[in-house]
């Protein structure tokens, strides 16, 4: 039972109405369509409300938080974030360095070829 997401808070009509308004504002500002069935919906709403320039979205999220506090009590503190190292990039099973090469480095690595056109050498630009 613990693995199933708790969507009881979405059974309140006034909260669903506020969430739908938030979803519309998030879609307009961030072009991300949030689903009501997403188990991380509460976290995503908090994330977008924190990053939004829209005072309307922040106000709506504040109203949702107040309604949730009345319904469920205070939120538990979020778990501490783990330091993550960037994943190793692979190309055909071999690790690839993350920094792209500079154009002058690629010029040096590429052998110069003579370009022939109809049997004659032509200038390469």
Concise structural overview:
The protein has helices at 13-30, 41-51, 55-72, 103-109; strands at residues 89-91, 94-96, 115-117, 120-122. The protein is mainly alpha-helical and 125 residues long. The protein is elongated and about 85 Å long.
Question: What do you see in this structure?
Answer:
Helix content is 43%, strand content 10%. It has a domain at 8-72. The strands form two sheets. Strands 1-2 form a two-stranded antiparallel sheet. Strands 3-4 form a two-stranded antiparallel sheet. The model has no long low-confidence stretch (mean pLDDT 81). The chain contains four helices and four strands. The radius of gyration is 27 Å and the shape is elongated. With 125 residues, it is mostly helical.
Summarize the helices and strands and which ones pair or pack.
Elements: H1 13-30, H2 41-51, H3 55-72, E1 89-91, E2 94-96, H4 103-109, E3 115-117, E4 120-122
Antiparallel strand pairs: 1-2, 3-4
Helix pairs in contact: 1-3
Q: Main beta sheet: strand number and arrangement?
A: 2 strands, antiparallel
SSE topology string: HHHEEHEE
Which geometry do the CA atoms define?
Answer: elongated
The residue ranges in which pLDDT falls below 50 over 5 or more consecutive positions are none
Strand order of the largest sheet: 1-2
Query: Which class do the helix and strand fractions yield?
Result: mainly alpha
